[in-house]
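Q: A reviewer asked whether we had any structural model of the full assembly, not just the individual parts. We don't, so I'm hoping you can provide one. Inputs are below.
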Amino acid sequence: MSSEKEPHVVIVGGGFGGLWAARALARSRVRVSLVDRVNHHLFQPLLYQVATAGLSMPDIAAPLRHILRRQPNATVLLAEVVDIDRGARRVCCADGSALDYDYLIVASGARHAYFGHDEWAAYAPGLKTLDDALLIRRRVLTAFERAEAEADPVKRAAWLNFVVIGGGPTGVELAGTLAEIAHHTLRREFRRVDPAAARVLLVEAGPRVLASLPEGLSAKAATQLRRLGVEVHAGRAVTAVDADGIALGEDRIAARTVLWAAGVAASPLGRCLGAPLDRAGRVIVEDDLSLPGDPNVFVVGDLASRQQDGKPVPGVAPAAKQMGTHAAKMIKARLAGSAATPFRYADVGSLATIGRMAAVADLGRIRLSGVLAWWFWLLVHILFLIGFRSRLIVLINWSWSYWTYQRHARIIVGREHKDDA
Amino acid sequence: MSSEKEPHVVIVGGGFGGLWAARALARSRVRVSLVDRVNHHLFQPLLYQVATAGLSMPDIAAPLRHILRRQPNATVLLAEVVDIDRGARRVCCADGSALDYDYLIVASGARHAYFGHDEWAAYAPGLKTLDDALLIRRRVLTAFERAEAEADPVKRAAWLNFVVIGGGPTGVELAGTLAEIAHHTLRREFRRVDPAAARVLLVEAGPRVLASLPEGLSAKAATQLRRLGVEVHAGRAVTAVDADGIALGEDRIAARTVLWAAGVAASPLGRCLGAPLDRAGRVIVEDDLSLPGDPNVFVVGDLASRQQDGKPVPGVAPAAKQMGTHAAKMIKARLAGSAATPFRYADVGSLATIGRMAAVADLGRIRLSGVLAWWFWLLVHILFLIGFRSRLIVLINWSWSYWTYQRHARIIVGREHKDDA
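A: Here is a predicted structure for the entire assembly that you could use as a starting point for your response.
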């Protein structure tokens, strides 16, 4: 147990950045308080699998306090941080409680954003949390049910049209998996409609999908998507989203299920720090990830804006983990009287899965696509899942899904509330 | 595929009664429509495990249309039946759609009921659906979190007091499992509170818990509950439930988490049938389970009121399955011109689990309690789970939980809405 006199490190956010920072401080003579508004760490790279009923929630989430149970200097608090008072060195929570810090690591990440079209949120849910995933799962599975019950062929077609907006990794994963569900998983289960008649459209405003990858892999991803049955519409900007579907300029597409994967905005906590932000609302940090002019405050993960070799450090899990670990190292250095060192992102390559047996990987000199990339993706993701139990269960679930095309978590819970549209 | 000319059997409800009826009609020249307001069949005997984070939703639920995918004469419809017009032989749904039937099997079960105290529902959620289970899970896990954040010792104690109202099987299971969570699962995970300081109270108005079992087993169950750390209060009626706790006559117990397992009432659809109901709102059926005066309509499962050898047929899964199968047999007999036969419940015994290594079983001549009963319970429940996949996964989850005391599904989703209190 730690003493009240030891420096207090408050970490806001239990994602990859915050959790890795907390773990890196395990052997330090500090008190660590990890604050998150949910009780679990989420393995976000597999969240789309929960949304598409391939995995269930506990497969990709574990309680933060369970993960940190053997780290006596760490306290986990379930609270929503709403303000940061750097003058008083205090973090304020929605329930009125407050935490005084000596060091602060802000790792509150990003939410999906509609770029000035917040009214689209009701019709096109995004995917960042488990609640989002359950909502998307409900919308997708209910759409097939509504199609089965619908007598009017025009209305039925609208229930069988699925639009995914945004051709980044999440959009590609969602579109590829939706196509698999329609063409394989639901086969033979409906009597009036043929789920294989469903259309899955992936709309990307930019010229190509997976724009962060080299052009060759991007093209291969598009080919694999089309082979899975996805209609890829690149270079088309969405101009309207409503209850009936979307508009691409003059063209209207009738679709009762629209998913948003077009972009994220940094957590609003960035604005509380009084530091310069970049265009996406991320905090521009110093070389050592500290706040300009305040060496006791660090920003890591998706909320941090950092350039390296003329390119931004990407908003991916490995970068967040490395940043979290670095911020913890900087605090230890300060306590030991050592000098700060600059953060350097060690690029481990990019991986994007597309669907069954389809993926692309950019590992620097090696580029993979298709089946081989998919196996590599599977291996990496199972290895990085936290906790042996999850790995085993996920492996069994995936093997099962692979051989049977089944998705075991096809359970609709909850009802649509008014704010869900 | 079945022809439009074949008789149309509409089954309302995809629980044990309805699903077993549908399956029993697989080889008959009828069209079967199974209507349910949720998309899944639920293995209700294990629902308390989802509520207490031991299992996740897909472990105990499977999509109805997936279960029936290889039965071409069966159509599954997701709809909420709100009325039955026996004159027109028509079932009406909440979305305005309607189904005309030649034969009708009503298997819409029961909901938990507050016996004239509906205002208690907000403070003491009951457990009948997956949504109920997720709500209870959220309340229980959040209570420990709130205790950890609470500085005032009196308020903290109220967060650590858990009251279960009702000493039937569900109440006993919930209380036993809550005690295990407090004393084992959460050990070492909190820094400010000791979860083992939590009190779990089981309140039963009648003189003993598990009143449907012989007195000896009832007493053994109470002993096992106390050994697990549950305070058993039998012969005490709850007189008030509110946000601060409960009242037992003059005594008040401060508790922020109260769960309701004190009773069920039959589905309101029973009232639409225009047939005599018993005191619990269940439909009094003929010997062959048909409605008095209407041989084309059958009522099965928890909604049916049936006496046998001077005792009511119990509201348990085996009885519902047997009734569903019998109703299907009666329809086949009618189509073949054979005579109706009376339903006879084949009693397979009673089993109730209490907690880790604690259960009681009444198998007629053989009565078991303790470890042996628990292993028997485990075996039976895994064998009866639908679908090989679930059995395997549940077995792995349980083995894991057993050795580690961990409950893998400790994920809080959703937020409290106003109507949750």
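A: Points you may want to mention in the reply: The two ends of chain A are 49 Å apart (CA to CA). Residues 130-149 of chain A form the longest helix (20 residues).
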